[in-house]
User: Fold these one by one.
Assistant:
Number 1:
Amino acid sequence: GDEVELSHPCGEFFVNPADTSAAKKPLVLVSAGVGATPLVSIYDSVLASETASRPITWIHGARYSGSTCFVPHILETAKQHDNVTAKIFLEARLDFEGQIDLARLEKENLLHLENQEAEYYICGPEDWMVGVRAWLEEKGVPRERQHLELFKTGDINFLERYNEE
């Protein structure tokens, strides 16, 4: 007998896979832990759309192999698409050991920093996202091309102001 109020999904953390003007824009998806959950939806939607050929870099970090989300799916689909690069950071497994190292990925030209149209979607622990945003800004990526998902009330700008106090 309980009543629950629901609304349709809403927010600013999405990609329109039907937007054919984005077909050549690199898409960089960076996640840590369960932050992979919304990014895998973006990833799958783009790969199933008319913009499926756009360059995609999937970067994911987790503390240990038992805490990875969607890694087998991502690695398998990356093998099937020449435009997809997947890099996984785990302790002693897969591509890299330890935490996500953006500088290392920059050296491998996987972040598309030179492309003024590249879009960055970042999801994971709040402090980590703020750090990724700051790193990208230091490299010249404006906030308009950075999209962060916060798993609580408020937005990432509120979190940054709160942490400064």
Number 2:
Amino acid sequence: NESLPDQVWLVYDHLNIQQWFLCTKVPLHDAKGEVIGVAGAMKPLETTGPDSPYVRFGPAVNYVLRRYDEKLKVPFLAELTGCSVSQFDRGFRRMFSMSPTQYILRVRVNAARNMLSTSGSSIAEIALSSGFYDQAQLARYFKQITGMTPSKYRSQFRTS
């Protein structure tokens, strides 16, 4: 029953590319004051503009979005931002409500979700293509984040 202003979400944009968006949701009320729906607005999160509080993290955020399939280390991401590892971790958690490691996992799982719903590749191939060590690691984190196994997700959301 409360507005949720300026939440940061990682979602696919209209070009099917993972991006960060700043999202606001507000409840819609009828004449009696009862909630009858939710209205929302999203806009791309500006990580490059001089006035953006996210600008410091832009290099790391964008690096992960482009190279999630590679071995990624938090100290390297911190280096990209000019922060110590502890400064980077604290600031990242404050800005994105997740740790840098959780962000990497979320990007990888989102990539796997996209591949599961749009390709005929095996789950093992998708695991490797999305940056996981193997199918078991993908399955563990996929279920932790989405609440379902990769196989179940594919059977429910396959579009091609």
